[in-house]
Specification:
Elements: E1 6-16, H1 41-44, H2 55-67, E2 75-76, E3 79-82, E4 92-95, E5 102-103, E6 106-108, E7 128-138, E8 142-145, E9 150-153, E10 160-166, H3 173-189, E11 202-211, E12 222-227, H4 230-250, E13 257-262, E14 267-273, E15 283-284, E16 291-292, H5 294-300, H6 308-319, H7 323-330, H8 333-343, H9 349-366, H10 378-389, H11 395-407, H12 413-419, H13 427-440, H14 442-449, H15 453-466, H16 473-485
Parallel strand pairs: 12-13
Antiparallel strand pairs: 1-10, 1-11, 2-16, 3-4, 3-15, 5-7, 6-7, 7-10, 8-9, 11-12, 13-14
The structure holds zinc ion.
Length: 486
């Protein structure tokens, strides 16, 4: 490659909203039901059937807009996007054209949302990808192509679908991954959607163009389809950037078109040259009234949750945890809630955070459990960490107590420690062990007196052995310090 080319990437993300019923009829939204059992004249597109707006879907879209800093026009309307396809028998999809529910705004890219191998080399930390718009439309039916025929399932037809369109200001495959993961995190926080790509709740088309640095306007926009996972998005973008650069280098013209990602072969292939918006002959749907958004926006505003990055800032400020730890704790609402419950009223919330991140998550991981299934109540964890912090039990002992607590979560951490004999030995007895250790190890004592910390640790270990592990290491080390250095 002779020069550096500039890729410009934009994402169109379709999100299935968490509503009970479909966008324009009362049919339930559900998965795994019998084929074509959830359909009525409206979502089948029968002539004369009249659509009725699902207000819940509009509210969820407005909530998303508020979370992402969008503005909302005072009046929004519904338009027909005309095209023929068997999965859309009324020959048009109800969508929004020039007056969508949300405009502008942006998606913040979180550090931990980048692919793991790219987190150390983030080009623009704290970047916010600007959005063009968010609009609401209906999903189409699902076609399945068999060897000699095709079948269509209308259960999905009419499911509320929110489309989030970004500006082409994503610079790399890694930023695209961060965009999708951050967006998903925010949508889940807002209770808008579960946004699971593997389940088709979030689908993504990628627009991508490449231009030489001396060229101002963007190159030909090429759209990628059939991207079914975040890792497919990353691989497809990397492949397509290389392919387009090759074309530019060899003088092959790039034309606006749609290409299909083949995940097994790891390549994109041409599907069609792209229709422009005028090919769809958008016009206002005469069956639906425009919506006045003012009052609804004010009603939705209190439902906007604290967002992940806002939580991170607060955790750092109020609990004294590191920004990295705060990001991990805020990556899931349930985890953040667990931490806050455990940290409430704790002497050192930072220690609680450490315990969760270093021990609790590891144990859950081993058991293949999520934080939502954690048997140990946050209050019990706090009690355990306090036991350790007050010097009553050692770190190792605390882990043993936790293992028991995990199996019988109703027990009291202090009781478990007591039953295991993890009581802090009385100071008199510990002092006797300290005397004994000093008498038995004259050479090491000499070195420890001279400032050798390793020897001090060695002597602590000797006292621990003499106490059969029951003394508290913190107390022992304090006693030794006083005797040898005091
Ligand atoms: Zn229906």
């Amino acid at each position: 490659m002779s020069k550096t080319y500039i890729p410009s990437i934009g994402l169109e993300v379709h999100v299935q909203l968490k509503t009970q019923s479909k966008m324009f009829c009362a049919c339930p939204v559900a998965f795994g039901e019998e084929t074509n059992s959830l359909a009525c004249p409206v979502c089948l597109g029968l002539p004369g059937a009249l659509p009725v707006l699902n207000e819940g879907a509009i509210r969820l879209t407005l909530r998303t807009g508020l979370m992402l800093g969008c503005s909302t026009p005072p009046v929004v309307k519904w338009d027909r996007k005309n095209y023929f396809y068997p999965d859309m028998p009324k020959d048009y999809q109800i969508s929004q054209f020039d007056l969508p529910l949300c405009l502008d705004g942006g998606v913040p890219l979180y550090d931990l949302a980048y692919p793991k191998d790219a987190q150390k080399t983030i080009a623009r930390p704290g970047k916010v990808v600007p959005l063009t718009r968010i609009h609401l439309e209906e999903d189409v039916a699902k076609s399945t192509h068999h060897a000699t025929f095709s079948t269509i399932d209308f259960n999905r037809a009419g499911t509320p679908l929110m489309e989030i369109v970004s500006e082409p200001e994503i610079d790399s495959a890694e930023e695209a991954v961060a965009y999708l993961n951050s967006l998903r995190q925010i949508l889940v926080y807002g209770g808008v959607s579960d946004a699971d790509m593997e389940k088709g709740q979030m689908r993504c088309d990628v627009n991508i163009s490449v231009r030489p640095p001396e060229q101002k306007q963007l190159g030909a926009k090429i759209e990628l389809k059939n991207l079914n996972s975040v890792s497919a998005v990353r691989r497809a973008i990397r492949y397509e950037i290389e392919r387009q650069i090759d074309c530019l280098e060899t003088g092959e013209p790039l034309i606006q078109s749609t290409r299909r990602w083949d995940d097994d072969a790891g390549i994109t292939t041409q599907m069609r040259t792209k229709e422009d918006a005028h090919d769809y002959r958008y016009f206002p749907d005469p069956d639906l009234m425009p919506v006045l958004t003012g009052t609804m926006l004010e009603e939705v505003r209190p439902w906007v949750p604290e967002l992940p990055h806002e939580k991170v800032e607060r955790f750092v400020r109020d609990y004294g945890v590191t920004p990295y730890d705060a990001s991990v704790l805020s990556s899931e609402q349930v985890l953040a809630d667990y931490f806050e419950k455990a940290a409430a009223g704790a002497t050192t919330p930072k220690k609680i955070a450490n315990w969760i991140l270093n021990n609790l998550l590891a144990v859950l991981n081993e058991q293949q459990l999520g934080i939502a299934d954690c048997p140990v109540a946050p209050e019990k964890l706090r009690a355990l960490v306090e036991l350790q912090e007050s010097g009553q039990i050692s770190n190792l002992q605390a882990r043993e107590v936790f293992a028991d607590l995990f199996v019988s979560p109703d027990q009291d951490p202090a009781r478990i420690a007591q039953a295991k004999g993890f009581e802090p030995a009385d100071t008199g007895a510990v002092e006797a062990f300290v005397d004994q250790a000093i008498a038995q190890n004259p050479a090491q004592v000499e070195e420890a007196r001279g400032g050798n910390d390793k020897m001090l640790n060695f002597l602590t270990g000797q006292v621990m052995k003499l106490s059969k592990g029951k003394a508290n290491p913190k107390t022992v080390s304090e006693l030794l310090h006083a005797r040898l250095r005091g």
